[in-house]
Amino acid sequence: MKKSILYMLGASLLVLASCDDMLDKSPRSEFSNDPSFWSNENQVLTYSNKMYEDYAGYGYGGNGGWFYFKSLSDDQANPNFDNWTFTSVPNTSSYWSSGFTEIRRCNYMINGLASSSMAASTRNNYMAIARLNRAWQYFQLVREYGDVQWQSQVILDPNAAEVKGPRTDRDVVMDSVLADLDYAIANLATTSADNAWSKDMALAMKSDVCLFEGTYCKYRTQAENGKAPDETRAQRYLKECVDASEQLINSGRYTLSANYGDVYNSLDLSQNSEVIFWRNYAKDVQGHSTVDYTTGSTTQRGITKDAVDAFLFRDGKPLATTTLNTDDKAVKNDDGNYSISKMLANRDKRLSVIVDSIVCFKGHGWSRGGKTAEMTSSTGYTIAKYDNLNMGTENPTLYRNGIGSGYTDAPIYWLAVIYLNDAEAKAELGTITQTDLDATINKLEARAGLPDLTTAPAADPANNQGVSNLLWEIRRCRRCELMTDNWYRYWDLVRWHQLDKLDSSKYPNINLGANLSKVTDCEVDLNGGYAVASAATRTWNARNYFFPVPQSQSTLSGNTQNPGW
């Protein structure tokens, strides 16, 4: 893939005109919607490049992206406190309107290409791009809202019956999502020198989507999700997940990076054999602020005690059963800083990449690399895995602490995620073997310095999710591998029907951080010796499984609203 293609995110595009803003489904620009436009490949390419903006990666400019900033989870604690996204029904919402804006963009492209005079293979390639991105948008909307109106055509008449039509059953929408993904897989090239959209990227998206759908349909409840579990549907989607995952795994085109952190802090992911699809950045051309927020003076959204306690010890055993030293106290070094290096030495190697060995907190800052601002963290644990000490060495204050100046590349889909998806889907299907584990999870465990997982692991007393020992360990590996990545943890808890684990009144460790009991003159509130990230409490309500449908849209669709709202 040529990097220049992804630099075109800010390029000028022909604008799309809206005739029905009331639908919250209007594109952002204007253009000549006629066969001549859709028959000109350069114009269609430029139009389709706009869709890259929907894959935020590390964000752009001063905006946050998918990594680090999605801290409504049990893995991180925001110093400003994360509560549920909605506490009441809004009249409008960008979550809803932005999704339908992009769906409308895709549908313009799909409808327009039907009359295109381009060669069939070229036309089908662009049709696949549009359907791939329509699938992506609908997947997001269904995760957030459940039932949403399915639109396969552009609505031009604001008085059309479809405008006030009911929301479509979310299962029906997801079946249409799968059909779009399968079309994309069948019609996109495996790789491309000039275009990031590829069959492999579509397979990776299908792997993610089908794992979500399969497990969601298995664990959902009538009372809290509005639909009863559907084992037949769950099995079908889990098998689709396995099929997509194994096409990628068995292709031979991807191998794990030697180092866990290489996927997250690389200046050029085009050279990384683990990455399937990424968003790239360029020095002084297009940058992000993820590095800045994890190296600067703004108090970090630190890792929680609950998250740290999830990591296995080097003997492959959890906190409750390990025979290794479990002391997690931060101790003062000769230089006056407080270190957790002894604790990290006994744990899964991923933890040493995710966080620094020095803890820093209110009243005791610290600079990573010694050339940038002093950091503090809400929990004492600072997030290190996105930082690259070699980025902008001539001016670290600008490139590592500057708003919108970071230029490390952001992964969107990568092999570790596919390994995790494949293993979990097979475990849910009841078909997983030791060979399967060795081909997926155990490659990640080996990289983390841990012994192999077997199909019959010992019980962990911390298992509070009501699943088998094996599923618990696979979920643990997923949590540790993807910690602070792409809002994965939040949506994993949704699909496992475990979102109550974000109730800090029931699970106080999700609001605690490092063990600061040996810190002298500590300015941080402590609970049992552990840093308290926030005095606020987050209380679980079953309605949080869905976002509330904006009132303006609920009225259009017959005043239908999600459970509890």
Distance N terminus to C terminus?
A: 45 Å
Structural class: mainly alpha
**Which sequence of SSEs, written as H and E, runs from N to C?**
HHHEHHHHHHEHEHEEHHEHEHHHHHEEEH
Largest sheet: 3 strands, antiparallel
Strand content: 5-15%
Number of H- or I-type helical stretches: 20
Q: Report helical residue fraction.
A: 25-40%
How many beta strands in the DSSP annotation? 10
Q: Ranges with pLDDT <50 over ≥5 residues?
A: 1-29
User: pLDDT average, as an integer?
Assistant: 92
What is the gyration radius calculated from CA atoms? 24 Å
Give the spatial strand order of the biggest sheet.
4-5-6
Please state the overall shape, judged from the principal axes of the Cα atoms: globular
Outline the structure in words:
By secondary structure, this protein is mostly helical. It is 36% helix and 5% strand. It has helices at residues 3-6, 35-38, 41-49, 94-113, 120-145, 170-187, 199-219, 222-225, 231-249, 290-293, 305-310, 341-345, 349-354, 396-399, 415-429, 434-439, 441-447, 469-481, 488-495, 551-556, and strands at 76-77, 275-279, 302-303, 331-332, 338-339, 358-359, 410-414, 512-515, 526-527, 530-532. It has a three-stranded antiparallel beta sheet with strand order 4-5-6, with no helix packed on it. A three-stranded antiparallel beta sheet has the order 8-10-9, with no helix packed on it. The protein is globular. The model is unreliable at 1-29 (pLDDT under 50).
